[in-house]
Amino acid sequence: MTAQNLPSEPEFEQAYKELASTLENSTLFQKKPEFRKALQVVSVPERVVQFRVVWEDDKGNVQINRGFRVQFNSALGPYKGGLRFHPSVNLSILKFLGFEQIFKNALTGLNMGGGKGGSDFDPKGKSDNEIRRFCVSFMTELCKHIGQDTDVPAGDIGVTGREVGFMFGQYKKIRNEWVGVLTGKGQSWGGSLIRPEATGYGVVYYVDHMIKYASGGKESFAGKRVAISGSGNVAQYAALKVIELGGSVISLSDSQGALILSGEEGSFTPEEINQIAAIKVERKQISELASTAAFSSKFKYIAGARPWTNITGRVDVALPSATQNEVSGEEAKALIASGCKFIAEGSNMGSTQEAIDVFEAHREGNQGATAIWYAPGKAANAGGVAVSGLEMAQNSSRVTWTSEEVDTRLKHIMEDCFNNGLATAKEYVPTAEGSLPSLVAGSNIAGFTKVAEAMKDHGDWW
Ligand code: NDP
């Protein structure tokens, strides 16, 4: 089938164009024209598995969902990437996530290919028994297509340690083997310490390098006002790490609305973040907490809104950490108008192309203090999959590393990720005198060239 005959896949096409345009606008294809062929080949998944998931609800009714696994690229290692359970899930979204995952995994420096999967199942409002029955049915089919040396899924939106546990148990029963086939496992049965925290912590470690590089080592998170969206796994741990490093968290959100500090002073406290984490385990909305006396006296809750245009006072750092396309071009302009200098995506493809264009336009020229540093998700949120890779290494060698050891490795990986993107941008991306290097272009080129070279060695293109 020719590309013209393929169904429209808006999210995947957006992710493809974002990567391809940064390669085109660099000197990569002038220096290595043969890499155009690699781009064509890498943008088609090696395999897509789609299957039926039939399960029984608490009333005894038959429920049907769609299950997917996109095994996108295995040049660097077994397919690796999360499972998303959300009603919006479709092939376009999973292909975009799998495509991003290939280059993100390459940036970690670990041997992992790229994949993504999930289902249009909505865990909200389901009982634990319904979630267990769904996970068992989902894994009954998925287990035929994955394995510790083939494809190692993890969690993503809607998939926490609980779901990973149910799926791991079913894999073990059917295959009669205890292997590290999923990451994000419970700590008593093979999970890595720091894996739950890794994505959020990793984003903050990455931004810490941006801030230090930009200020010549003079500044840090201390005193910075940080706007965060989302209130799930990534947002919670990013928020806690920001506070630990001396910054203030001034917003969080969920799919129903945004919770924003009312005044220009103060921060969410770790206790408030823990309260939010507790209601999220029960899949409740932050609006429930927002109406309590303790929260309503300190925060404003705006139903149906994202934080970016609703912050009171200055913003120094923005960490979109909910879902794709959660910063529009207009919101990007509003963030810059609020003083924001550092944007790093905890979420995958958190910014629309229009938002990226706004951020990138503000790194050009001698804009001094207003110059913007923008880090794409595939670099900034790579800490999650990196620690998943460390979990695989621990499982294979049947050892458990301490929190300190995993955290130290995570810090080094995020530092390398930042330095690699920066150095590659300087090498390949023409930049006006006085402008900042493009971390988005540098990260895309660094990830892409590593994968393309391995594919060439394997005879995938020539
Ligand atoms: P969670 O399910 O734990 O949390 C997701 C958060 O985003 C919730 O607050 C949720 O609100 C909100 N959200 C979900 N969908 C939407 C939407 N359509 N509009 C607005 N808000 C929404 O997921 P994670 O924290 O794990 O993932 C967040 C992002 O980070 C995703 O883009 C994911 O792909 C990415 N990511 C996650 C990694 C990980 O290790 N977990 C690794 C790398 C990237 P509500 O509670 O109301 O549903």
Q: Name the overall outline.
A: globular
Bound compounds, each kind once, are:
NADPH dihydro-nicotinamide-adenine-dinucleotide phosphate
The strand count comes to 12
Q: Segments where pLDDT lies below 50 for 5+ residues? A: none
Q: Characterize the largest beta sheet: strand count, sense, and whether it forms a barrel.
A: 7 strands, mixed
The CA-CA distance between the termini, in Å, is: 21 Å
Class from secondary-structure proportions: alpha/beta
- Provide the succession of SSEs: HHHEEEHEHEHHEHEEHHHEEHEHEHHHH
Helix content: 40-55%
Provide the CATH topology of the domain at 198-380: Rossmann fold
Mean pLDDT: 96
CATH superfamily of the domain at 198-380: NAD(P)-binding Rossmann-like Domain
Give the CATH class of the domain at 198-380: Alpha Beta
User: How large, in whole angstroms, is the Cα Rg?
Assistant: 21 Å
Number of helices: 17
Strand order of the largest sheet: 9-8-7-6-10-11-12
Please state the second-level CATH architecture of the domain at 198-380. Answer: 3-Layer(aba) Sandwich
Share in β-strands: 15-25%
Task: Summarize the topology.
Layout: H1 10-24, H2 28-31, H3 35-42, E1 47-56, E2 62-73, E3 79-85, H4 91-107, E4 114-119, H5 128-142, E5 151-155, H6 161-175, H7 195-214, E6 225-228, H8 233-244, E7 248-254, E8 257-261, H9 270-281, H10 287-290, H11 293-296, E9 299-303, E10 317-319, H12 329-337, E11 342-344, H13 353-361, E12 373-375, H14 377-380, H15 383-396, H16 403-428, H17 439-457
Parallel strand pairs: 3-4, 3-5, 6-7, 6-10, 10-11, 11-12
Antiparallel strand pairs: 1-2, 2-4, 7-8, 8-9
Helix pairs in contact: 1-4, 3-17, 4-17, 5-6, 7-8, 7-15, 7-16, 8-9, 12-13, 15-16, 16-17
The chain binds NADPH dihydro-nicotinamide-adenine-dinucleotide phosphate (NDP).
NADPH dihydro-nicotinamide-adenine-dinucleotide phosphate is lined by residues 155-158, 199, 230-235, 254-256, 280, 285, 321-323, 346-348, 381, 384.
